[in-house]
Amino acid sequence: MLSLKLVQGTYNSYQSDGYFIFLPEGFSFTGEYEFVTKEFPHAQGLLKQHGFTGKKADSYTLSTEKNGSFVHYIFLGLGDESNASYDSIVESRRRSIARGIQIAKKLKLSEISTVIPAVAEGGQYASMIEQLGVAAIMMTYEFETFKSSKKDAKPWSATLTFLSESCEESECQSSVERASIVGHAMNSTTRYFADLPPNIATPTYLSKKAEELAKKYDLSFKSFGREKAESLGMGGFCSVDIGSDQDGKFVILEYKSGKSDAPTIALCGKGVTFDTGGISLKPSNYMTGMKYDMSGAAAVLGIMSIIGQLKPAVNLIGLMPFVENMPSGKASRQDDIITHLNGKTTEIKNTDAEGRLILSDALAYAEEFYKPDTVIDIATLTGACVVALGHFYTGLISNNDELIASLRKSGQKTGDRVWPLPLDDDYRAGIKSEVADIANIALSSYSGGTIEAAVYLQNFVTSSSWAHLDIAGTAHDVPAINYVGKGSTGASVRLLVDYILSKSR
Ligand code: BES
Ligand code: ZN
Ligand code: MG
């Protein structure tokens, strides 16, 4: 567990057993860094000899002894920031501080402090420590519940203190608190539930966990299964659920701001606890990793917990259809025709395109019962999105240009990036069906699987402010970004929390 703290002070005045010292290319130990040469007269030469020049991935540690214990100076390279945009400077610093955390953890330090260097575009210090604080906490995440050797060992616990002399205290204080809430909810809720194996994280289990979170964070909780879903006419949810021995759960969490003019936002998260493909069975090498097919719903669980703590002036509803997509004698077939909550009929041409079947009912449910101003769905929806965008950008499709702009801005600011794909009427004909209103996969001549899936969902939205986030490539196993780590990444939590807070009245 990493705690974050804010202290008015400097390296000289604050005692810790580790200091993160960020250095740009061409650094020198003058000015605020002069204290380094007091401790280590030869620091400049030593670092140079060890190849530390302040480049982005550089790190080097110098250690000394003070009053009987060791003190470690952990130098972290910033690279050349002179021509970089503010957002890309912050992203590169996320990776630097994460590298520092990795070193601190190895050294088992318990008190680390740092001064975050100013950036030419000033005035954004509070936001900077918020962003770096979240990344530092993300870096500490490990999924080792099932490693018998690690389970009983005492987990690393430390405090990271941001030292500042200039930061407006209350503003920086709330930034640090927000970072702590967001980072820890991502790790303990979104990432942990997504990483849990599908034999444990069943719809029933996740519904119970949602209920526990609701109690803890003062949210209202509702959950129902197939019987109620059937009576409501949620043919999509039921058609995926029916093949599994695990009972599906449609879970709803609600945060009410109590402010009459607050906007209402609904989040629908895909919660397929395991996706075998159903009767349209996946080949086994494509099936491994399909425990992550509930990452959208896990993101919603995390976001609801965060918003329950931050209490902005926004009403937020989280809808999570949890089902397991299994083949069996009761499972849905290709050629089946189902009727959704909003009355539209779908010809099932492939039972592996199941996410859109449950999300469409969730979207229709959100609109019918909550009349939200904005609806956003989050889903590991298509392999095509991984092909199109890879692992660093979530696919964004929306019917509203302002919403696209807001989400892109939040994405750049938080490092939880999104990239827009088009949504034109031309794509709509791809999912036409000879026998029902629409089909759940597009004609092969249309290609564009990510957009065709979105066009399907659009049939269940009447709101003029809707966004679809395809996190198939970003939700897990993202390479090369140290702080998102192995396994679940918590994709879309940072993005949507920032977006929701920006709508607070
Ligand atoms: N859960 C998958 C999407 C997915 C694939 C996520 C790979 C992450 C990595 C989804 O349910 C699915 O199976 N989609 C199909 C749709 C197709 C049948 C139109 C796909 O992408 O192949
Ligand atoms: Zn799926
Ligand atoms: Mg599927």
Outline the biggest β-sheet: 9 strands, mixed
What's the number of extended β-strand segments? 18
Which structural class do the helices and strands define?
alpha/beta
Number of H/I helices: 16
End-to-end separation in angstroms reads 33 Å
The shape, in one word, is: elongated
Under CATH, the topology of the largest domain can be stated as Aminopeptidase
CATH superfamily of the largest domain: Zn peptidases
Q: What is Rg?
A: 24 Å
Topology (elements, then pairings):
Layout: E1 2-8, E2 18-24, H1 34-39, H2 43-49, E3 59-66, E4 69-79, H3 86-106, E5 111-115, H4 125-139, H5 148-151, E6 158-164, H6 169-195, H7 203-217, E7 220-224, H8 226-232, H9 235-241, E8 249-255, E9 264-269, E10 271-275, H10 284-287, H11 295-310, E11 315-325, E12 337-339, E13 345-347, H12 355-370, E14 374-379, H13 383-389, E15 394-398, H14 401-414, E16 418-420, E17 438-439, H15 449-458, E18 466-470, H16 493-502
Parallel strand pairs: 1-6, 2-4, 2-5, 5-6, 9-11, 9-14, 10-11, 13-17, 14-18, 15-16
Antiparallel strand pairs: 3-4, 7-8, 8-11, 12-13, 15-18
Helix pairs in contact: 3-4, 4-6, 6-11, 7-11, 9-12, 11-16, 12-15, 14-16
The protein binds ligand BES, zinc ion (ZN) and magnesium ion.
Ligand BES binds at residues 275, 293, 350, 352-355, 380-384, 386, 441, 449, 472.
